[in-house]
Amino acid sequence: MESSRSFEAHLRSLRSVLAALVFAVMAAPHLDAGFAVLFLAVAVLLVLYSFVPTARVALRSFGA
Q1: Which domain holds residue 49?
Q2: Three-state SS for 18?
Q3: Of 22, 34, 39, 47, which has fewest CB within 10 angstroms of its CB?
């Protein structure tokens, strides 16, 4: 039961980070080139950072 809640929390976090990534991609053409690259890099790092614990929780909850 606890791992299910944790998994749901990680999925919510991942959705939020993916929304930030979509926002970054949409905003990039309107920003200065250097700032846009930095903004996109931070968004990608956030996606990767949130994916690692989500994958661990998913593996635990599915018994792998």
Answers
A1: 2-61
A2: helix
A3: 34
The residue to which tokens 């944790």 are assigned: 6
41: enclosing H helix or E strand: helix 33-61
**What type of residue sits at position 20?**
A
Instruction: Give the type of residue at 56.
Output: R
Q: Are 57 and 7 in contact (CB under 8 A)?
A: yes
DSSP string, 51-64: HHHHHHHHHHHTT-
Cα gap 62→55, rounded to integer Å:
11
* Contact between residue 15 and residue 55 where contact means Cβ atoms under 8 Å apart: no
Q: What is the pTM of this model?
A: 0.46
Tens digit of each residue's pLDDT (9 = 90 or more) over 19-47: 777 877 787 777 777 777 787 787 777 77
